[in-house]
């Protein structure tokens, strides 16, 4: 739906105002509907609207703005996402400002500036058309996701974005083959979950699924970890060690952080991928392993090849199919569904929900730690929020929060009391108070600054 197809609804009880706005919009090619009462406005809102311009008062000599407030809330119920511009005279200005805090797009004072109003309305129409198109795409993705889940094992993956849907679709499509798959993307974005989906939908689903974090294994133990070692093969090897390839025989081996493998280790891995043969450390007898290899990395492997840190021939062996996962900031449609999923998991039966301010803070954060960071932020919030509502301060996202978000937060006072209590118990020692709260000293200092908590010899309330 284009912006030209979405009308602006003008709601005002004064015919001269409606005529003036109607003429202005006709001159600029903006489709519009007209209503002089709240009842007419709600009837007009039965079709999709691009924006609403509504007055605050409709009865003669009424100046309280109560009618405008009631209409605003009804319109938001009928069309939750429609931008609403509140039109006000000086007497209703305070009420209009309050509506902006509740979600109105902005307010317009009478008399208005024609050029500014037209520019604002055209921008809102473009944004509204884009929002409706995105909503349509999300609905389609939701239906496609449900169809996938009905036919494939998706391992509980939570997403709403088109980018993630393409990744999951490709994962289940390549699952049926034995081709090696390289899963790339930043740390914490869900690469292991994609590997689980591939394995769970493959012919090897009933066979072993062995996970190896290459980056966590010391280089001197890498060969024995991957390929095994005979007793006495090296100092301390008192008994036979079965390697990961042998453990995964018949199944799937997931090599995480494969870019950290040493060049010597890369040679041995390449050999087993080419021939299916390997040798235990301390043995000259070749062994075979029927293993499908899935690997993952957050590194730029072509760049590592240019720097001679990674073998090009191994790269092409691992990268028969590549799945590129975007970071969480690149798929914002996934942020709130994931946050609600984690909240439900960690709340442990407590009645806890995300406040509108917390949702705004989550959407405005850049998520350098991706899904893993989001999970940890929500886990922390469930520990400090108690029952009720999660505020932005419970999430401890750092940085300066917008003033509107701070005003919307209903947990600030409780958070401040919690910080003061922790500092009091720690006798003003910030490190001890931070440990008690389960956060870093830097995070506690940021929190103290936001909440206005100061330290002299003891915390001041």
Report a brief summary of the structure.
Helix content is 48%, strand content 13%. The protein has 461 residues and is α/β, with parallel strands linked by helices.
Essential attributes:
461 residues, alpha/beta, Rossmann fold, Helicase, Ruva Protein, domain 3, 3 domains, 5-stranded parallel β-sheet, 16 strands, elongated
Main sheet specs: 5 strands, parallel
Percent of residues in helices comes to 40-55%
Strand line-up in the sheet with most strands: 2-1-3-4-5
> Helical stretch count?
20
Number of strands: 16
CATH topology of the largest domain: Rossmann fold
- The CATH first-level class of the largest domain comes to Alpha Beta
Rounded to an integer in angstroms, the radius of gyration calculated over CA atoms is 30 Å
Report what the structure shows.
There is one protein chain. This protein is an alpha/beta fold and 461 residues long. It is 48% helix and 13% strand. Residues 400-411 and 457-461 have low confidence and may be disordered. It has helices at residues 15-27, 38-44, 66-78, 93-102, 114-151, 162-174, 191-200, 219-227, 244-247, 263-275, 301-306, 312-318, 335-346, 356-364, 370-385, 392-395, 403-408, 412-425, 430-437, 441-451, and strands spanning 8-11, 32-35, 51-55, 84-88, 106-109, 181-184, 209-213, 252-256, 277-279, 286-288, 292-297, 321-324, 352-354, 388-390, 454-455, 459-460. The longest helix is centred in the N-terminal third of the chain and has 38 residues, at 114-151. The chain has a five-stranded parallel β-sheet, sandwiched between helices. It has 20 helices and 16 strands.
